[in-house]
Write a structure and sequence with these properties.
The protein is an alpha+beta fold and 198 residues long. Helix content is 54%, strand content 13%. It is elongated and about 60 Å long.
């Protein structure tokens, strides 16, 4: 039996860390928040950070080929987002009713932002949502506390960003990185056509 050399040790290390990183990403992606690069280094790669780029490249390839996910680094957040690149009609996983409800509100807001050129004022957003019976300070029967969902959860999950553009009291909502990755023009055009037919 031949003794292992350093190349074998590096190969075994990389294989192990690729598997660990994929597991970490998939588990943490359930929270739908940014997965910080610093956390990957701290909890998975540890003192071998010189291998980080190699590991992430292999992780990206496996996530894509095996799970149908793309991984994207968001510079402003110093972290990664995973998103399913498979069309929703081809995914094997069923979306829960709760998640489907959540996505419908996200899509409604995103469509308004899209139709408004990429950003909307806070006032415009609530005026639009009121057309669908959704009011800022009234608990909605389907969505619950909509204000908390929009201002906290959807911002934390990177669907939307809240910007104070003019340094006054008016806030603006614009697409967050997850929204830009998961939704496209065809989705918005199809949704607009469905709304017109209502």
């Amino acid at each position: 039996m031949q003794p292992k050399n350093d190349d074998d040790d590096d190969h075994d290390f990389l294989d192990s860390k690729v598997k660990d990183t994929i597991f970490y990403l998939l588990v943490n992606n359930q929270k739908q928040t940014i997965i910080k690069r610093a956390d990957l280094t701290k909890y998975i790669i540890k003192d071998k950070s010189r291998y980080f780029d190699q590991i992430i490249k292999r992780v990206a390839d496996e996530l894509n080929q095996v799970f149908g996910y793309d991984i994207t680094y968001i510079e402003s957040q110093k972290g990664y987002l995973l998103f399913n690149k498979l069309p929703t009609d081809r995914t094997l996983l069923k979306i829960s009713q709760e998640k489907e409800t959540k996505l419908s509100l996200i899509f409604l807001i995103a469509s308004h932002i899209y139709n408004s050129g990429g950003s909307v004022t806070e006032k415009s957003l609530w005026k639009f949502l009121k057309l669908f019976g959704i009011q800022q300070d009234i608990e909605h029967t389907l969505f619950g506390d909509v204000k908390r969902l929009i201002y906290q959860l959807y911002v934390k999950e990177c669907y939307f960003e809240i910007v104070d553009q003019d340094q006054e009291t008016e806030l603006y909502f614009k697409f967050g990185p997850r929204c830009l990755l998961e939704m496209n023009n065809d989705n918005f055009i199809r949704f607009n056509n469905e709304l017109i037919q209502l």
